[in-house]
Amino acid sequence: MPRGKIRERTAGKLVDTWHYEYEGIRSDDSVCEDEQGSATDSAKRVEGIKVPVELRLHKKFVESVAPPLATKEVWFTVQCKEPAFCLTGSDIEALRAAMWEKLNARFAVRWEQFYLVEIRRDSHWEGRGSGLKFVYNRVERGTAWDGTLLMRKFEHRGWKITPWPGEFKDEGGKVMACIPATKENETALDEFGKRIDSLRERLADFLRPHAIMETLSNLSQIPLLSAA
Question: Where are the domains of the chain?
């Protein structure tokens, strides 16, 4: 080979392997699959999924009659196979930051606000009786990069991310409503709560001292208390 010709080491030397991590759904392979061949919802869980990113050193040498070869140029690449990204430069930290920015965009989750709405039986710690509690809590539905749906809900220890259940159920197995957290829905839910407050006052009137005996004697005549 003629003297002075540049020879490139194309593959590069592996210097380090970093791991980028994102929240994704993984299925438990030990659980049986359904008839369609996909893992059941109970077998799915959200966990940190790692993406290996390789840091490689590259050099160009000037061809020489005898070793050692003179170095003409040095640079680095950071690359991952899935997704297929490759960046080139001389500043390792700048390359890492740029790769993380691309991966953040690639695996970003689009979150939307929802309300989980339910009416449940209220608890009583003294005496006997019954009651109801109207509750709506904010949850978030996330659409991941691959189209899978996630749920993010704030609990006493912080945010918890799980697979989106599709159909919400209470502890008794009854289906609960989940609606978009729009301004219109929030206003309507607030109004629904006010009407329950008004209903509670109307029910209380039936148990005032001057009316309670008549109420108990004529329950079937009171539309609000008629058996379903």
Answer: 6-106, 110-181
